[in-house]
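Worked problem 6 (solution included).
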Amino acid sequence: MIPVKKSRRKLTRGITLALLVGFFIAFLSTYIPPPFSRLNPLPVISLEILDRHGELLRQVLSDEAGRCRWVKLEEVSPYLVKATLAAEDRHFFTHPGISGSAVIRAVFQNLSQRRIVSGASTITQQLARNLSPGPRTFFTKLREAWLALRLEHYLSKKKILEEYLNRVFYGNQAYGVEAAARVYFSKSSAELSLAEAAFLASLPRSPSVINPLSSDEALQALKRRQHLIINRMVKLGWASEEEAHEALTQALNLKPDKAYFRAPHFCDWLLGNIPAESKTKLKTIRTTLDYGLQAKIETMLKKHLAWLADKEVTNGAVVVLENQSGDILSMVGSKDYFDPEEGQVNGAVSRRQPGSTLKPFTYALALEKGLTPASRLEDAAISFMTENGAYQPMNFDREFHGPVTLRQALACSYNVPAVSLASWVGPELLWRRLHQLGFESLEKSADFYGVGLTLGNGEVTLLELTRAYAALARSGVYQPERAILGVELKESVLTPGVSAFSPQVAYIITHILADRDARVPSFGYLTPLSFPFPVAVKTGTSEDFRDNWTIGFTSRYTVGVWVGNFNGRPMGNVSGITGSGPLFRDVILLLHSKEPPLPFSPPEGIIKVTICAESGELPSAFCPHTIEEIFVSGTEPKTICSKHSKSLTAAAGFTGKEAFLEKNSPSSAGRHDLEIIFPQNGDAFFVDPILRLENQSLKFRTAVSADAVSVSQFEWRLNGKKVGQTKHPSFFWNLKPGSYVLEVRAISAQKSLLSRPVNFKVIANFSAPARNFSETAPRRN
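Solution. The predicted structure is:
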């Protein structure tokens, strides 16, 4: 029996020695330096995206998949430090990294539940877990405790607490107290009250399970824990009764996460264009975006889409560029980025059919080849052979308009002349020029699109369209858009500063797109495209009303607007005038609310010539009406009009500074020698509520017989009073509300002729509903 007892004593001593050696080695191992490289704050500091004025748009997700701003412990509210210690580790400043009593308590809880339900983790252990994450197992807990002891040997309590507060997860992609304070309360961590500090201190226990921004139930659960923490702080002597009472009665003003996710489509697009290696090197990006403008346009879009709801329009997008720099001032990709179904689709860079918005570039090529705004184009039935058979283009109104000028064809957006010009200049040339203007979305060959390219049978993006129109606004000079101040995201297809079109061609296209009178036959007079200052604008509607566009520019800004449905569902017969046009108008007026833009200035090489309104040639003495037209020097007409001879002639034209082509006056049968042809008896005119009254006029016109061609002057009378005298059978009269009787007297050396009176009236108050432009103007593309 004695040998057995000796054997047991030896075994016991061996085990004891082994345990002592093991504990000693374990103790010594706690002096192994911790992984200081993991304490580097750089991996968890986010990239900040700012607008052009320094406003925070977004903090980009860090390597920890959250937003974080690293702050020193002295910069954090003392309330938050105390609340965190009360909630997580009230013995933090006295334990060596682990708490013996907490460990014993956790062991009993875990054994009773037969699973790990309590970790007994101190703040140091939680920091260790953050630095070396792993599955929630017994071995992992031992590793965390070992690392916590090592951290305590090498770091001060202050440094450990600072590291913890800057790394702990508070939910909603907020890592660290500074990010949490800004996400939940829109303030810095230094400004937190006791109530706010206790609320944040209640989050790290279960940030992924209980989200105060998700439901009232979660919010109330966190408030109950907030109250427990405040009461515990009072017991510990870290807060007074008065402070606690004030905190417990303070209403929490939570700010939703969206407040720190500004201009989301723009930021997403920007990050997608920045190389990954650059993101790791940058801490701050100052963009070209103007968030004040962005926020206003976002609101405008939502209100406009609500107004279009009965037209089956559910979404839209807006892009604003500054012409001189190419800076993106605004990019709104949809009405609500946070919409769960399609909100994150960016309509500004999504490919859609552009409708008629590509026509101006076809006309620009035609001008390059020698045509002029006065060139006559035939708008009649025509067929083009394609791989799929004969293609017969139709106009938006399903009618043909006969011979029209190039100016009228573009301004009125007639399809047939545009397709004829595309065939004449060649689809290949048009396709190449569009690619030079940055239309990279047109990936197919020119043969694939054919002549239908000018009508928008390809797919492009709103950003591409806006960029191309900005080139027209820049006198034909192409320049890629800029999103970061001082930096271009990518090389341009065409070298910046090189003209895509000559200044003269760009100006003529601009002049036509800004010609309000020229588009009257197709769009009407009172439309959203009427402005109190020069605006060049073009609308477009894709096939089956799936996409609706308005693109245009002033001398300072270019604006692109798209409305439609991301799922491709057709809208309810919505055109540019009724769909995207009103929003385009609102944005343009917002951009120029402080001062109007400068007029478009003609470059050298543009001349103005008086021509016959019907033939486009130099006027003869018998042309019924003349207009002024602009030409590239050398392309102006050289021959005298041969269309008109000594016969009854009539002045043609319309209201405004420039006239557009009209049909000849009626035959002379049953007419007097002198007759007023505009206005006609009983006409009523409404004052345009958009333009100032002094900028609105009627053009009185009269027809004279061949015997009266030698008249020296025409005398115009309203209500018996002389209002003007001209040498030509027309007279501009500024609108004034009232009822009038118009008479005209033609005076010649032989005799004096007096017309029959014409009654008309001018109505001051137009009572149509706001924006109901379609009641006074036919809807056109």
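Discussion: The longest strand covers residues 738-747.
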